[in-house]
Amino acid sequence: MAFDAKTGKKKWPKVSDFRAEECVFSRDGRLACIRRGADRATSEIGFIDAGSGQVTGTRTIAGGENPTGPALVSAGKGFLVTTKQFVHKDAHYALTLTWFSSDGSRTWEHKPPPGFDDPALSEAGNVVAVRDFGRRVQVYALDSGDLVYDSTEDLKNTPSRISSPLVEVAPVRTGFAVSIRGDAKTVTVYDSKGTRRGVIEGVVLAFMPQGSEGDLIPVEGTDDDHQRTLGVASTVTFEVVAATPSRDSVIREQILGERFLVGLRSGRDEDWLDFDTQSPTRTRSIAAGPTVLLAFDGTRGFFADRAGSNSGVPYLFACDLASGRQVWEIGNAGGEEREYEFVGP
């Protein structure tokens, strides 16, 4: 069922005929929902007119025997469905990526080799990347499914003295960036078609970075005292625009607009370090404690107690990143778990 977000009035005359388990809007404003099939080896995606609730079409997705998922996300002017199946002989999960145009008329499917992890994408950059825990990456064009990059050839050119090079990829608005951790610290920047655009010297990509709709990427390097630094680099200027030294273990690095958040762990303590990419010397600790970052709306970061489960969290709070001030909270750390859904941008 759909409701007007401002008035709360029903937008559809009746409940949708498609039994939905998860729904998302595409970048061009179309609605799709997904559900497991009757035999669990398949899933169904339904395309629904957002104005009337009418189902305009359905498609079936084969997921293999006992798949996990499916996961549905917005993917440019379309939708990406990811299913995973455990391959016992390889002791890895095998992904199936299926993309549909927003009206369901076009589709492509890829099955990367077993071991590749969940996809990271940039809708603005029109790319989706998969990676094998640092051993290999592949990048596809969202709208066509064309393979635009495979790290196999680059890894062949890695010096033989580097026994286990680590390769990382970051989808961004301008395309994507790749780094191979070896003796040279460089990040190579490509456009959305896989054409090399430039190189960022002195840094490598952070571990398993998320996809971004902007131009910045999280990077790691070393300072003059040979201490590790965490920072941000631009895929437009090919320069590091902000960096800060850190001795703590990194839980997660996330670029949020013009700010850079790093989740750190020192012993049993956890903390989020926030600094402004426009004023790199300004850093601030926020959201201390065992917390996880859920989302960002352009102004506020939304956090939850890490003790939550897949069905909900006991404690939610929001911080204004410009001031570092907590602006609201719901629940308490030892309380009842609450489900949540973000419906804004």
Descriptive account of the structure:
The chain starts with 21 loop residues before the first strand and ends in a 14-residue tail after the last strand. The model has no long low-confidence stretch (mean pLDDT 84). The protein has one helix spanning 152-156, and strands spanning 22-25, 31-36, 42-48, 55-62, 68-74, 78-87, 92-101, 107-110, 120-122, 127-131, 137-141, 147-150, 166-172, 175-181, 186-190, 196-201, 204-205, 216-222, 228-234, 240-245, 249-256, 259-266, 269-276, 279-286, 291-296, 300-305, 315-320, 325-331. By secondary structure, the chain is mainly β. It is globular. It is built from one helix and 28 strands. The chain has a four-stranded antiparallel β-sheet, with no helix packed on it. Strands 5-6-7-8 form a four-stranded antiparallel β-sheet, with no helix packed on it. Strands 9-10-11-12 form a four-stranded antiparallel β-sheet.
Using brief descriptors, characterize the structure shown:
four-stranded antiparallel β-sheet, 1% helix, single chain, 345 residues, mainly beta, 1 helix
The dominant shape is globular
Q: How much of the sequence is in beta strands?
A: over 45%
What summary fits the major beta sheet? 4 strands, antiparallel
Q: Helices and strands: which structural class? A: mainly beta
Number of helices: 1
Poorly predicted runs: none
- Strand order in space, largest sheet: 1-2-3-4
Mean pLDDT: 84
In short:
With 345 residues, this protein is mainly beta.
Describe how the helices and strands are arranged.
Elements: E1 22-25, E2 31-36, E3 42-48, E4 55-62, E5 68-74, E6 78-87, E7 92-101, E8 107-110, E9 120-122, E10 127-131, E11 137-141, E12 147-150, H1 152-156, E13 166-172, E14 175-181, E15 186-190, E16 196-201, E17 204-205, E18 216-222, E19 228-234, E20 240-245, E21 249-256, E22 259-266, E23 269-276, E24 279-286, E25 291-296, E26 300-305, E27 315-320, E28 325-331
